[in-house]
Write a structure and sequence with these properties.
Number of strands: 21
Low-confidence stretches: 323-327, 336-347
Mean pLDDT: 91
Largest sheet: 5 strands, antiparallel
Number of helices: 2
Order of helices and strands: EEEEEHEEEEEEEEEEEHEEEEE
Helix content: under 10%
Strand content: 25-35%
Strand order of the largest sheet: 1-2-5-4-3
Shape: globular
């Protein structure tokens, strides 16, 4: 048996982030990776890789390279895809940054150009992407495989960046993705039909859209799903016959939004609403439930005339802190969403 090939360092990027860093999402297990690697043969620590196991495991992550403008939120980091390929009893690894338009612009400038989720969007120096409008589309939220390509996606709606799932070579953007509204993370792929189902949301009427892309990567349907105002959906659900979109009472405060402030509130006097429509598109039927929030759904299926939806329901999704110093947070830390408190908002 020959010696195992050594990992190959392909490209290392210069980081301007101060190190060592005490920020909980810039240190420890969250310390950013700045190097792209190819590892042709990974060491098997125990047991063996089955010879009949062939495929690729893909993972998307946030890996910031540049010092943030003000506060850093873990959703702000640049997208980086990681791949472990299993093939004929071996496993190989590689990782690549998702070279989004925003990533390339910041690399040219050598500094952050967009403020993050926890910062005042007015601090962004360029027009941004997505529902908020001032964020960088980092394409770092999730990854799905459709029509033979891996698509990296952004939680506040951005472009769908195409990548070869084996080599991780980037292949531009999906041509069918709406140029203005973009596409939200957590699109669904039906492994039987090869279709992809997606949604997006924005601050402009009708506030939400739903679309279907066929197995040949062609847009087959795109329709408006009207909402009462700007909302913050994060996931959708898919069954054999239906698709479910959501309108939860956790969204940007409309009064503050009119002043350019994106402050999320839980309106516990409003119901949770679910839009049910045929997978191919068509009539939207709305159903109401008690006020709550659900970040992700687990499953959706038909049982006779019933449509069953599984998800993790949060009855009180707002943080409890009412003081800028967040006295109930662990020492040396801030609550992730403490900036939502009005006392921290300067109008």
């Amino acid at each position: 048996m020959g010696s195992r090939p050594e990992p190959v360092r392909l490209e290392s990027y210069e980081s301007t982030i101060h190190r060592p860093n005490e920020h909980p999402y810039l240190s420890g297990a969250w310390e950013p990776q700045t190097t792209e690697w190819d590892c042709p043969v990974m060491e098997v620590m125990a047991g063996r890789v089955p010879h009949d196991l062939n495929g690729v495991y893909l993972r998307n992550t946030e890996n910031p390279l540049l010092e943030a403008i003000g506060r850093y939120h873990p959703f702000d980091g640049d997208g980086m895809l990681h791949s472990v390929r299993f093939h004929h009893g071996h496993a190989s690894y590689r990782n690549r940054f998702v070279r989004t338009d925003g990533f390339l612009e910041e690399q040219r400038e050598g500094k952050a150009l967009w403020a993050g989720l926890a910062e005042n969007p007015r601090k962004s120096t360029r027009q941004g992407w997505g529902a908020q409008g001032s964020l960088k589309d980092s394409s770092s939220t999730d990854v799905v495989v459709h029509a033979g390509k891996a698509l990296s996606l952004f939680y506040q709606c951005g472009q769908a960046y195409k990548t070869d799932p084996i080599s991780l070579a980037q292949e531009g953007k999906a041509a069918w993705a709406p140029s203005i509204e973009g596409i939200s993370a957590h699109a669904k792929v039906d492994e039987e039909t090869g279709e992809l189902f997606f949604f997006n949301y924005s601050k402009n009427k009708p506030y939400c859209h739903y679309g279907v892309v066929d197995q040949e990567d062609q847009l087959q349907h795109y329709q408006a799903v009207e909402l009462p105002g700007a909302r913050l959906p994060h996931d959708m659900a898919l069954s054999k016959q239906h698709v479910v979109l959501c309108d939860f009472p956790l969204f940007w405060d409309p009064v503050l939004l009119n002043k350019g402030i994106h402050a999320t509130r839980f309106f516990n006097k409003l119901p949770s609403r679910f839009a049910v429509l045929p997978r191919a598109g068509g009539e939207v039927r709305w159903f109401e439930a008690s006020p709550a929030y659900c970040l992700h759904f687990l499953n959706c299926w038909e049982e006779g005339e019933d449509l069953v939806l599984d998800g993790y329901r949060q009855l009180n999704p707002m943080p409890s802190s009412t003081h800028p110093a967040a006295p109930d947070a662990p020492k040396g830390h801030e609550r992730m969403m403490v900036y939502l408190d009005l006392s921290l908002i300067h109008i």
